[in-house]
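We store sequence, tokenised fold; for instance:
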Amino acid sequence: MINYIVTEIELYLSEVGDGDPELQYTPKEESEMHNRCLRRWRAKDERDLKNKIEKFIGYPVEYIKYKIK
């Protein structure tokens, strides 16, 4: 297992609420979701890392930047 430190992430949230503003996340809510993913993760490889984050937060990873420790 590899130790990853996620430093930047973008989640795929563009289809949340299907265009209805009342059902979409606010910018603050989106920021909080992204911030919850910025931490240490243990995974076998990048694909496993993305899968773990998706399972944790409930949305796919669109972009990720990390350091390996």
User: Anything to note?
Assistant: The chain has a mean pLDDT of 91. Residues 33 and 57 are 7 Å apart (CA to CA). The first strand starts at residue 2 and ends at 11. Helices lie at 27-37, 46-57.
